[in-house]
Amino acid sequence: MAPSINNAKCVLVTGATSGIGRALALAIAALPSHPTVIGVGRRKDRLRELKEAGIEAEEFDVNTDRASMKGFVDEMIKKYPEIDMILLAAGIQREVHFKKEVNLDSIATELNINYMSVVAMITFFMPHFLSKAAAGQPCIIAPVTSGLAYIPAPWVVNYSASKAAVHSLCIALRALSKISPPLVESELHDVEGTTDALSKFWVPIDAYTKEAIEGLQRGDDVVSSGFAKVAYEKFEKPKDGMVSEMAKRSATHSKK
User: Entry's PROSITE patterns (predicted)?
Assistant: First the structure.
């Protein structure tokens, strides 16, 4: 079981200026343990709102190169040495129709934000977390995936693939805490103009946030709800034992 968020002292949240990231940042800041929360995002007006709510606000776009990402992480560790949790919620969603014209630059951007930025941030934070863990402070890495990581949606095929990649990364590393929301009320769908149609099916963001925070407080390895929870229980949970067995075999092989 993963460490509980109740023990977290300082939590950095990417994608904190809208949607799930913003809701979770505000909810974490309101926990009885009162951890320091660092909201990371691009929108200056939304960052000001976070500061007014008592959250540390840092302007940064995760759609960047590795050197810039490392520089940002190093700056955050220096400025907030107590960081012991990162919640990686930054993401975009674009429709892709392969029978029509496909914009490969858009696909690359979506992959960079949804997957590569997660890999880079985990990579650059890992030495800091390993050092804190060695000193007895449990740390949490919580990437936000999606129910579409389990069952892809054909109209957002690249988004589904990017979230499946994050989910696979989480399973393989095993030390990570994972959050996989169902379709949740947010601004994620505004760009494609699908908000009105999806509003008939999505989970209200307040309801989702409550369930997600409760899962993090319990220390659940996988925090999911709604359709995502059903899909995880049916298709993904059975893999856990297989992954553990593969990890044992890998450890045995590496000793030879």
Answer: ADH_SHORT (PS00061)
Domains present along the chain, CATH in parentheses:
5-255 (3.40.50.720)
Which amino acid is residue 216, in one-letter code? L
Q: What backbone phi and psi angles, to 5 degrees, belong to 153?
A: -100, 120
Q: 24: closest CA among 253, 177, 244? A: 177
The SS3 assignment for 51 reads helix
Average pLDDT over residues 189-207: 52
Query: What secondary structure letter does DSSP report for 147?
Result: G
Of all residues in the chain, what percent are helix, strand and coil, respectively (each to 5)?
A: 55, 10, 35
Q: What is the model's pLDDT at position 246? A: 59
Token pair of 35, please? 């951890």
Q: Is the dihedral of CA 172, 39, 186, 43 positive or negative?
A: negative
- Euclidean distance between CA atoms 92 and 97, whole angstroms: 16
Measured between alpha carbons, how far is residue 66 from residues 50, 109, 118, 224 in Å?
27, 14, 11, 30
Q: Where are the alpha helices (DSSP H) in 97-225?
A: 104-111, 117-134, 157-173, 195-198, 205-218
For the cut 80, the answer to whether the pLDDT of residue 50 exceeds it is yes
3-state class (DSSP) for residue 190? coil
